[in-house]
Structures are given as structure tokens and as C-alpha cells.
Design a protein that fits this description.
Helix content: over 70%
Radius of gyration: 25 Å
Shape: rod-shaped
Order of helices and strands: HHHHH
Largest sheet: none
Structural class: mainly alpha
Low-confidence stretches: 176-189
Number of domains: 1
Length: 189
């Protein structure tokens, strides 16, 4: 009888150690997803902070392109007020579209493209876009690992009871692959 209790005690200890290890792993993965999301938000914020400087530089050259500046300001406001990944992705798409229209306007102003401040801002924006792409990829990879882990057996049996839920991916919105159409006043296009 004593051996049976010893075996049951060892089995129970192994189960507790496995459960604790599994729980700690899920907690670490959850923290990783949240950290990666913070990096996405940091890069979105950095890009949003660069835009007013870029707009101010362009405004001096392209004063009659007022509609694009308003659209960009509205898109930036939507981006800053967006909530979770799906909402941020939608706002990001509108923001990116408005930004690409602004950059098309720049093409019509050779003196602006030669301006040192503008080129520096454009380089910073390009670097930020690259960092944002990496941050999105890192976030989505962390989400995939976490979501996979919490859906596997036996973790799936207890993880929801402890408040862990799957995360949303940061996905491009429908139509994100479409190049925006830009029409300039008085050009007949």
C-alpha cells in the first residue's frame, strides 16, 4: 500500500510540475505577444509623429494641395485613436493611402525633392516603414506561436479558465494592394 501512495505522489508531483511549466510558458508567450504589439504601436507612433514635419515641409511648396493635407491629418487622427489590431490595421491602411497621395504630390515639385530637410524626413519615414514592417511580422509570428500553443491539447483544457484568449493578427485590409489614384486640380487627369 505504501508503494501505491508513493507512485501516486510521484505522478501527482510530475503533473503539477508539468502544469506549472506549461502555465509559465503560456505566460511568457503572452508577454511576448504584448511586447511585440508595443513595438508595432511604437513604430506607428513614430510614423505619425514624422508626418506633421513632412506635411509642413511640403505645404510650403504645394499650398494648393490643401485636400491632401486635410486627408492626411484626418487619417493620422484615426490612426492615433484606433484600438486593437484590426482597428489599427484599417486606420493604418487609410493613413498609408493618404501618405502615398502626399508622396505623389511631391513628384510634381522638383525643388521640394531637392530640399535637404525633406530628403531627411523622407529617409526617416522610409526607415520607419521598414521597422514597422518588421514589427508587424514579429507581432504576427508571436501571435501565431501563442494562438497555436493555447489551442493544443492539454493546454486548451485550462488556458481559457485562467483568462488567456487568442490574439488578433495585424492584417492588411481588403484593397490594401490597390495603388491609390491621385488626381490633381487643373491637370485634366
Amino acid at each position: 500500500m505504501r508503494n501505491l501512495w508513493l507512485v501516486l505522489g510521484v505522478v501527482a508531483l510530475v503533473l503539477v510540475v508539468a502544469l506549472v511549466g506549461s502555465y509559465n510558458s503560456v505566460v511568457a508567450m503572452n508577454e511576448d505577444v504584448q511586447s511585440k504589439w508595443s513595438q508595432v504601436e511604437n513604430q506607428l507612433q513614430r510614423r505619425a509623429d514624422l508626418i506633421p514635419n513632412l506635411v509642413a515641409t511640403v505645404e510650403g511648396y504645394a499650398v494648393h494641395e490643401e485636400g491632401i493635407f486635410k486627408e492626411l491629418a484626418n487619417a493620422r487622427s484615426r490612426m492615433m485613436g484606433a484600438g486593437g489590431p484590426a482597428e489599427k490595421a484599417a486606420a493604418d491602411q487609410q493613413f498609408t493611402s493618404a501618405l502615398s497621395r502626399l508622396l505623389v504630390v511631391v513628384e510634381n515639385y522638383p525643388n521640394l525633392k531637392a530640399d535637404v530637410n525633406f530628403r531627411q524626413l523622407q529617409d526617416e519615414l522610409a526607415g520607419t516603414e521598414n521597422r514597422l514592417a518588421v514589427a508587424r511580422m514579429d507581432y504576427n509570428n508571436a501571435v501565431q506561436a501563442f494562438n497555436t500553443r493555447i489551442k493544443r491539447f492539454p493546454t486548451m483544457l485550462w488556458v481559457r479558465m485562467l483568462g488567456f484568449e487568442p490574439y488578433e493578427y495585424f492584417e492588411a485590409q481588403e484593397g490594401a494592394q490597390q495603388v491609390p489614384t491621385v488626381k490633381f486640380k487643373g491637370t485634366g487627369e
